[in-house]
Amino acid sequence: MARTADHEQRRNQVAEALMAVVGAKSLARTTLADVADEAGVSVGLVQSYFRSKAQLLRFGVEYMYARSEARLLALAEKHGPVAAVRDRLALIGETLLPLDEERRRELVVWTEFLPATLADAEMSRLHKETTGRLLGALTGAMEEARRTGELPEDADPRAEAAALVAFVDGLTVHCLVTDGDFTGESSRAALRTYLDRLLQAPGSPPTTAHDTPRGTP
């Protein structure tokens, strides 16, 4: 058991080093030697776990997505029961935004990895499966919002979940690369405004999508 734990610790140490190097140098300029140096281990040790840079990158993607999912799962423990779906979705959206240094570093790496999913079938699969799980969870929340009257009766929960993912992803990219209007605080406010326009307070009279103005700030 101890050897297995040490094995996993070493792999995670290498994954952390990979994210640090990619965030500083870009994916294209990252080498196994860079990662080994950042992790404080030999190139041979890195190669004993990952036979190629492609394998290392795939593990890095899995590691990054696993951390993000763990953070989302921890929301309930941190905040307790949240009655309004709108408030729950705001917490989820904020967790996905680069609002602290750890998430910013992860999401810089995410923007570096995304182009690789176009050429690497395994990384594409990982990205699609992770996005699919997120969409499934958000679709469930939107369906609940429709039952409680927060979401208009004729709205499509899956489409609204996909739109929310796209909106948060767009905020993330601009928060990372655009100055001025896309600070952490303004991105948080934009997310809240988006959800306020989409959802209403629980128990309000039922509406349809035509009655509820939509759009981004």
TrEMBL record:
Q: Tell me the GO molecular function terms.
A: DNA binding
Q: Where is the signal peptide?
A: none
Q: Which residues bind DNA?
A: 31-50
Gene3D superfamilies per UniProt? Tetracycline Repressor, domain 2 (1.10.357.10)
Write the record's keywords in alphabetical order, separated by commas. DNA-binding, Repressor, Transcription, Transcription regulation
> Domain HTH tetR-type spans what residues?
8-68
Stretch list, region Disordered: 198-217
Q: What is this protein called?
A: AcrR family transcriptional regulator
Q: Which PANTHER family match?
A: HTH-TYPE TRANSCRIPTIONAL REGULATOR YJDC, TRANSCRIPTIONAL REGULATORY PROTEIN
